């Protein structure tokens, strides 16, 4: 019953947003104001190339004034786009599939990929020297929101490692994303699924211990992607191109520079984070290949996403890759840089 209520609530939220957008004529027209409202799903070192683009002035070099805000949740992030409160969002591709299956007049389109693996880690209450996934059997896992990429990847990784989620173990999903670490510290669950730098902060405080990477175990996915409405692409292709150009510049910069240099650049985005923890987190994401080398969302990664969603029961109807993915801007950005 809980699953049905959550699913129905998400559908109602999306439909309400679509209806609202139809009534807002200015939300799909030509953008005259150079300020681009960018909404990210969460604020994490996982999105390092984006912060490099902001701090290094790559958006400004393209003539864009990008205003970044954080929504803290995939459903909230997509709603910001559909309601006209965002021009571009950074969130998982699965959200565009949910929207497309509601037959919108103005679908959400993936146009540039930022990360290509899951960015979350499994944190244990106690250190485990030789962790294996079967250790989750009979345990309580403090998980993520139903229907979101982190939770779907978690369940898929457990499945391919011989565990039947919610049968062989218990997964708690009624804790808000921002409160997961505090709930775990207060005694909820044997394990928790967390993003960085929260996971490493807990480890530094000896309140939790990273024992496994969901990104290493699940393979490549279009995990976080830049998304906008089709009307924005139709009416403002030059803005989407400039935005993609800036992201590609940042991707190249991140892959060509040291962790110390990267940390220096993104430090203003994480003013309260210890530098040693920052370097540790950067190393984790770089070593597991989390940051995409370029902004192209490959069809192979999309098909891997479909497998993950199908296992979780969230893919009710397949959506053609071409219907919600536009690689033209990514390819143009690469070709322009190479000339």
TrEMBL record:
InterPro entries: SsuA/THI5
Coiled coil: none
UniProt-annotated location(s): Periplasm
Gene Ontology cellular component list: periplasmic space
Principal cellular location given in the protein's record: periplasm
Annotated keywords: Signal
UniProt xrefs under PROSITE patterns: PROKAR_LIPOPROTEIN
UniProt xrefs under Gene3D superfamilies: Periplasmic binding protein-like II
Residue span, SsuA/THI5-like domain: 48-255
Family that this chain belongs to: Belongs to the bacterial solute-binding protein SsuA/TauA family.
Designated name of the protein: SsuA/THI5-like domain-containing protein
Species this protein is from: Vulcanibacillus modesticaldus
